[in-house]
Amino acid sequence: MIDLRLLHSFVVVAEAEHVGRAAKTLHISQSPLSRQIRQLEETLGLTLFHRERQRIRLTGDGRWLLEEGRRLLSRCTAFERDAVRRAQGEGSRLHVGFVKSAMWTSVLPRALIGFRDSRPDVALELHAARSADQQRRLLAGDLDLALLHERAAAPDVEAIALLAEPLLLAIPRRHPLAKKRRVAAADLNGEDWVVLAAPREPGAREGFVAACARAGFTPSLRFVVGDQATALGLVGAGMGCAVLPRSASAGAHEDVLFRPVAWLGRSRTLYAAWRSSAASPALLALVRHLEAEARAFAKADRVSSYAS
Asked: How far apart are CA 8 and CA 138, in angstroms?
């Protein structure tokens, strides 16, 4: 069986690519650290590093072990956290991460009401966070449930799509296009744009530009912002147009109007993710409430769309 202490030492050395710096991080001298790495190599029968005079570099086997080792150590950390929570009597407490749109769609608030009524013995701690941060905290065991815009892909993680939310065109109320109920792609050629693209979502801006190009125009990107509230404020001030999830209209400024954008052909999906090894009855009950509220929201959204 692999010694987790050796694996941890390997990960630190691999990330530092320098035994001396890794030794300082681990608070040991270089010689015993080098012996630990060689012991791990002998145990596994793998050569993990190319050793050069000034530095070391990972081999192909080393890169594989670095990825797998991070996952295993993360899972062990989550296991320890779960054990501590149980020992401290936190088995009846759930830590839930969420992106803000989960609140704006009303899916999360309504699910919380139903869950509270059915499981009054379970306390909830809510943590607003970006999708990437939630994935990391979920794997580390800091979150029991994550509501995010990216499908979490990792061992021991289950994920379901709750809601595919349509995107809408947000325009200033005093904009000439505000008189139109339907805005065609050709109407937007030459317009300034406020683009919603979080720092850890590098493909969001490129995806938006590509979608506009397919529709037949090139957008002028005046502002790139990381949150919907900022985007709405800029649109309301007349600084440009934006494409935002339908839920953004719930908290929109009075100077912002919304129009459908059938030409865009995109939506934003809300996922629920949790670690299957930590799926308590209370957690699964909360997931069921979320699924029910997501179905209700989607049905009401379709009805309102047909009515308009």
From this structure: 20
Cα separation of 139 and 70, whole Å? 10
Residue appearing with tokens 């309301």? 236
* Fold for the domain defined by 4-85: Arc Repressor Mutant, subunit A (1.10.10)
pTM equals 0.63
Distance, C-alpha 56 to centroid of its chain? 33
What's the CA gap between 119 and 36, in Å, rounded? 49
Residue 224, both tokens: 């790139």
Fold of 92-308: D-Maltodextrin-Binding Protein; domain 2 (3.40.190)
Distance between CA atoms of residues 193 and 173, nearest Å = 15
Query: Which are the contacts of 102, defined by CB distance < 8 A and separation ≥ 6?
Result: 108, 147, 270
Q: Where in the chain is the domain with CATH 3.40.190.290?
A: 92-308
Candidates 199, 243, 200, 237; CA nearest to 221 is: 243
Tell me the residue type at 263: W
Q: How far apart, in whole angstroms, are the C-alpha atoms of residue 239 and residue 231? A: 10
- Rounded Cα–Cα distance for residues 191 and 62 (Å): 50
Which ranges in the chain are annotated with CATH 1.10.10.10? 4-85
Nearest Cα to 91, choosing from 126, 125, 127, 122? 122
pLDDT in tens, 82-127: 676 666 544 578 999 998 888 888 899 999 999 999 998 899 999 9
pLDDT digits (tens, 9 = 90+) for 148-195: 988 877 788 999 999 988 889 999 999 999 888 888 888 998 899 998
